[in-house]
Amino acid sequence: MKKNNFLEDLKKIQYSLRKKLILEDKINIDKIRYIAGCDLTFLNPFSNPCRGIGVILVFDFKTWKIVDKTYSIDIVNMPYIPGFLAFREAPLILSAYKKLKIKPDVLIVDGHGIAHPRKMGIASHIGATLEIPTIGCAKKLLYGKHEELPLEKGSYVPLYDEKTKEILGYVLRSRKKVTPIYISPGNYLTPLTALEIVKKSLKGYRLPEPTRLAHLYCNSIRKELLNKEKFGKLF
């Protein structure tokens, strides 16, 4: 009963944040100067609480040079619960964002945007909190239906809400015959523009460059901390 009450309280927060979402293009693709990707990992993901690392890399959208990067380390008490990922991971990303000297025009998040049962995936949660354009780019389907996707690189189909028939985002085959990625706007973007931005961010890999390199950066910090005999003194 207590867990149900807890989840109901989290749902209320999600519904409150959802009111802040504006699924319209607040920026033109041609006007994007800086784009960022974020990722998160844990020093010991199987323990709770555990230490988490959240990182953000900011790129020049034309040259793809890294112009800023930062990370945040803290204790995470929230366990993983499907549909409530943001409450576990978003605080570290928000903390890292505050440290940036160069704020991105668009932030790509490793997770979902409105392709979520309550239209409040982690990308939407972060976008609504910071009031910035965000995109969710996830590796697995959480919510929505789509038609069969061709195996060819670059093929895509709409991801839609089976109940309302609303387009939530797109399923994109970023490389030939590889598992697709699931793209949905988080905030301040339409589904189609979110798709186009991710397509422009692909550099030959399955994942867009911002989140792909953020993941590598995240793992490098984790490895460095684990190699320190007394990393616990950092906290």
Quick one: CATH class?
A: Alpha Beta
Strand residue content = 15-25%
**Second rung of CATH, namely the architecture:** 2-Layer Sandwich
Span between termini: 34 Å
* Helix share bin: 25-40%
Low-confidence stretches: none
> If you compute it from the alpha carbons, what radius of gyration comes out, rounded to the nearest whole angstrom?
17 Å
Describe the overall structure.
- With 235 residues, this protein is an alpha+beta fold.
- The protein has one domain (2-234): archaeoglobus fulgidus dsm 4304 superfamily (archaeoglobus fulgidus dsm 4304 fold, 2-Layer Sandwich).
- It is built from 5 helices and 8 strands.
- Strands 3-2-1-4-5-8-7-6 form an 8-stranded mixed β-sheet, with helices on both faces.
- A hairpin with a 6-residue loop joins strand 6 and strand 7.
- Helix 2 (85-99) crosses helix 3 (122-130).
- It is globular and about 45 Å long.
- The two termini are 34 Å apart.
- The model has no long low-confidence stretch (mean pLDDT 94).
